[in-house]
Amino acid sequence: MTTSTSDTIETQIRAEALRLGFDACRFADASEAWPASDRLTQFVDAGRHGEMAWMAQTAERRAHPTAMWGEARSAVMLGVNYGPDADPREILAHPQLGAISAYAQGDDYHELIKKRLKTLARWMQQRFPAEVKVFVDTAPLMEKPLAERAGLGWQGRHTNLVSREFGSWLFLGAVLTTRELKPDAPSQDHCGACHACLDACPTNAFPAPYQLDARRCISYLTIELKEAIPVEFRPALGNRIYGCDDCLAVCPWNKFAQIAHEQALHAREALRAPALGELALLDEAGFRVLFAKSPVKRIGRDRFVRNVLYAIGNSGDAGLVTQVVALLDDDAPVVRGAAAWALGRLAPERFEAMRADRVSTENSAAVRGEWVITPPAHPDESRDPS
Questions:
Q1: Residues spanned by CATH 1.25.10 within the chain?
Q2: Are 304 and 276 contacting, i.e. CB atoms less than 8 angstroms apart?
Q3: Cα(375)–Cα(314) distance, integer angstroms
Q4: Which among 58, 137, 183, 275 is placed 20 to 30 Å from 355, CA to CA?
Q5: What would the CATH number be for the domain defined by 275-380?
Q6: SS3 for 97?
Q7: Other CB atoms closer than 10 Å to residue 284's CB: what's the count?
Q8: Coil, strand, or helix at residue 274?
Q9: CA–CA distance, 75 with 70 (Å, rounded to integer)
Q10: What are the two backbone dihedrals, phi and then psi, of residue 176, each rounded to the nearest 5 degrees?
Q11: Which residues are catalytic?
Q12: Which parts of the chain sit beneath pLDDT 50?
């Protein structure tokens, strides 16, 4: 894509962003008032961030884009489409298979987007001299409110960004600059009276529209929570072993979404519908090989196998008891505890026969606690753990 010298700065930046592979590019004023700060404060004060201590620690820097970088004047907001080629919820009907969130079935988007952001930032600096800084997800910048301000979409009732062109399937990145750029019109909320995303949540993680209690969210529970997942949420996990797409996938605006054209973001066959029984056998080396370049690698083998064992406990497949029993002696307490719960779900009599011996020999108090409780027999729990 070419630009002429008569094109505006914004037109030239947008053309270069699209050339680099971004699917959307719009501009926002980075120095205006920032109502998102109050929402973040309420979220943290209510403890809804759970164990994500970094959200509280960086709250002041997230309070406003200029709180982190006082010279920032404009934000170039960028989106990369990762629309899946099928409804991510289809796998939930196959309890012997593991459901991995759509965004994590391909390469790690952080690396993909950061490389392009840096390339765009260098190009901007050379063409229109000004200071620039790039941000993608892990930095203390609230990208969704900025994206809404730039007109990329609006924060829907599920708190994620919704786009008229890409539905709920946009990765976000930002380039802050000291240069004044003409802002685009902000997006308006087009959720209307729809509450499909709220109704779809398996754990009732939305206390109210536009509010999320991360402590109840399956994405938080399977990714951020380091220890055992609370017992009351385990049946609602179903076969979700990394993240949850339910609230995103049910959004009516997805009817306008496009399938991602990025080969790196396409689902790898090995991660599209992996067998739980095979995943339970993963050791550290096998985990690293399977999830090379995948965002899943960030949680490590132990936490991942913990998730797999909860899914096995929900599967109703007694044929997986052999894998469960083998993991009762795993080195990681979080794995041993999840294996005990899964055994109690799939083979209650065997669980009872082993209980006394395991309680007397187990050196982890958390794991002994798993043997003390009696897991509910599969499968007739309510999906509402409240």
A1: 275-380
A2: no
A3: 11
A4: 275
A5: 1.25.10
A6: strand
A7: 11
A8: coil
A9: 13
A10: -90, 145
A11: 137
A12: 1, 380-386
